[in-house]
Design goal:
The chain is mainly β. It contains no helices and seven strands. It has two domains: 43 residues, no CATH class; 47 residues, Single Sheet (N-terminal domain of TfIIb).
């Protein structure tokens, strides 16, 4: 695996060059590189979670098993974070998809 000298992202082969998936920086021809390199598809960012206060999307959506205390809506965004020590269960943070109310649930 080779990483870009400019931005640090993973590079992939493109013809006879190694090209950065993010910034497009190109390096030496692939034929001069070791055969240990493996080409992969572009990195997927679908698992990235927005964490700003005004973000419309924050985490993964729940099914209809939670209820917002403010509006009664049954679907919320949620994230799971380890807020205590490693031997304690994680905390689930919710944000209602309808009204934006936030709450947490301890396991």
């Amino acid at each position: 695996m080779q990483f870009c000298d400019e931005c640090g992202s993973m590079m992939h082969t493109d013809g006879e060059q190694m090209v950065c998936s993010d910034c497009g920086h190109a390096t030496a021809k692939a034929e001069s590189l070791s055969t240990d390199y493996v080409s992969t598809e572009r990195q997927d960012d679908s698992d990235v979670i927005e964490t700003t206060e005004d973000a419309n999307f924050e985490g993964k959506p729940t099914d209809d098993t939670v209820r917002c205390d403010e509006c009664g809506h049954g679907i919320a965004w949620y994230t799971i974070k380890q807020t205590g020590s490693a031997d304690e269960p994680p905390t689930r943070f919710f944000k209602c998809k309808e009204c934006g109310h936030r709450w947490r649930e301890y396991s």
